[in-house]
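Journal club prep — side note

Before the paper discussion, L.F. wants everyone to see what a predicted structure for a comparable chain looks like in token form. Sequence:
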Amino acid sequence: MLVDDAVARAEPFKLFDRSGLFPLTTPHGAKYRRQKFHLLGKKRQCSLRVYPEILLSEACTARDRDRAQVAMGLDPVEVRRQSREGSAPPNFLAAHDFQ
């Protein structure tokens, strides 16, 4: 099913691909590009932007950037939040002692 063809349902629903990107369609018909990822064993998701404001190629670039941040132990949601506030993001792997 294509994102353009997705129609509103009674509950919000997602159309997943294999890379973690998905459009979220709300009951009101709004569509958002989102991404899911795992950090420290927890499932997380972050919003990229409203569909069709962000192209699929831009969403893939953002996904790759976020994956690199997760590999470095950074939470992409916190990185974005900190960049808006102007301070350095915390390193979650360094903050947890795994020994």
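L.F.'s comment for the group: Helices lie at 56-71, 76-85, 92-95. Keep this in mind when we get to the figures.
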